[in-house]
């Protein structure tokens, strides 16, 4: 019998979703507990993650209710750390390749996702930077994708794919709904740029990732759109 594993998450968070993706791809038995980040329970901070951030996991110890975590379980936070932990915990899942060169490529892709996609895309959505910055980052990511391969690195889904997929899902929302703090129409404009021949390789990869069963089971687009509407109520002119 495997050790207990509990994920604490916030559904709209892309960082939580990438852990959901890895768990689903590894077919890992676990419990999930959604934390209200706007009204965090005291026990979560005192017993799970003193920083108060999600995602976080507890591993091992007695099998208890998620809202009463045991002091005997290991507490692990930060999404990239959790991704690596799950890949090590389930080595047969292929979440991390076995050869060191491919493992290094996975880690480089994750780092590139943070620097070139996640940061510029979030800055654009929040109205802090023009969409051209996000477009440059997307172009960099496309350059890392190997011709003829379905995944970020090699022939198997890895934590590199789990890391980027939630951002690709949010990119889809922004370009199809124009939701964000940026000037009206800029989300649509970014979407039109991505439909051009220059980004064919990237958009084919996006489509493959969005069609994964793990993505569909961890993602409710309508709920996320509704959440975006509550937080992006004003635009930068």
Report on the biggest sheet.
4 strands, mixed
Strand order of the largest sheet: 2-1-3-4
Overall strand count: 4
- How far apart lie the N and C ends? 57 Å
Compressed to H and E, one letter per element, the order equals EHEHEEHHHHHHHH
Features:
237 residues; alpha+beta; four-stranded mixed sheet; 10 helices; globular
Q: What is this structure, in a nutshell?
A:
Helices cover 52% and strands 7% of the residues.
Describe this structure in words.
The protein is of the alpha+beta class and 237 residues long. It is 52% helix and 7% strand. The chain contains 10 helices and 4 strands, in the order βαβαββαααααααα. It has a 4-stranded mixed sheet, covered by helices on one side. The longest helix has 26 residues, at 100-125. The radius of gyration is 18 Å and the shape is globular. It starts with a strand and ends in a 6-residue tail after the last helix. The model has no long low-confidence stretch (mean pLDDT 96).
